[in-house]
Design goal:
- The protein has about 70 residues and is an all-alpha fold.
- It is globular and about 35 Å long.
- The mean pLDDT is about 90.
- The chain has one domain.
- It is about 50% helix and about 0% strand.
Length: about 70
């Protein structure tokens, strides 16, 4: 098994590929992860979803072409 690295997805992206990359890394459905992320962000005052997404956008590298 190869070494997996957490990175933004080039193939599975809606905005910046952050949630697509996390879903690929964990082996989850990207659509379900996006829905859960939006629901948690909207319903929880303690989870600043947009801010977390923006931070991850800048911290997570874009996946390699290979």
């Amino acid at each position: 098994m190869g070494h997996r690295r957490l990175a933004r997805s080039r193939r599975n992206r809606v905005v910046a590929g952050v949630l697509g990359g996390i879903a690929e890394y964990l082996g989850w459905s990207a659509t379900k992860l996006r829905i859960a992320y939006v629901i948690i962000s909207v319903l929880s005052a303690a989870f600043p979803g947009l801010l977390v997404y923006l931070v991850l956008w800048f911290l997570m590298p874009l996946e390699d072409d290979g």
